[in-house]
Amino acid sequence: MTAWLKLIPSWLWWLLALVVVAGAQQLRVSGLQGDLKTERAASTDTFGKLSACRETRGNLLVQVSEQNAALADLRALADQRQERAKQAQAGAREEAQQDYQAANRLQQERTGGDACAAAESVIDTELGL
């Protein structure tokens, strides 16, 4: 049985071994290339999702900053309205004070006679009638 092995030259044995090893490596590389394609597709999909998340985050940050600006504007408007209301209240208080003083004068000026006529006279004077 070993006689026919001796008929095959040694370089052919080396070539056969090389073909077997190269074939095994080729099978291994083919399998890894398939895995690489799968992982690359998954990575591309993941990168797409990551990009979408980053874009959404950017949009949300813009919306939050716009909302914060709108809230600041609303607060400023509320402060302005409150200031105007305080000024209007102070003006009304001054006007009411004048009316209150006129009413007190009316009561103090009552000097006998018809109270309605005295009140009518004072009111007409105050109103310029």
Descriptive notes:
This protein is mainly alpha-helical and 129 residues long. It has three helices and no strands. The mean pLDDT is 84.
Radius of gyration (CA) equals: 51 Å
Supply the number of helical segments. Answer: 3
**Average of pLDDT:** 84
**How much helix is in the residues?**
over 70%
Strand tally is: 0
Low-confidence stretches: none
Distance between the termini: 147 Å
Order of helices and strands: HHH
Sheet bearing the most strands, described?
none
Which term fits the overall shape? rod-shaped
Characterize the quaternary organization of these chains: single chain
Structural class: mainly alpha
Residue share in β-strands: under 5%
Task: Give a short summary of the structure.
It is built from three helices and no strands. The protein is mainly alpha-helical and about 130 residues long.
Which descriptors apply to this entry?
129 residues; mainly alpha; 0% strand
List the helices and strands and how they pair.
Blueprint: H1 2-7, H2 10-108, H3 115-127
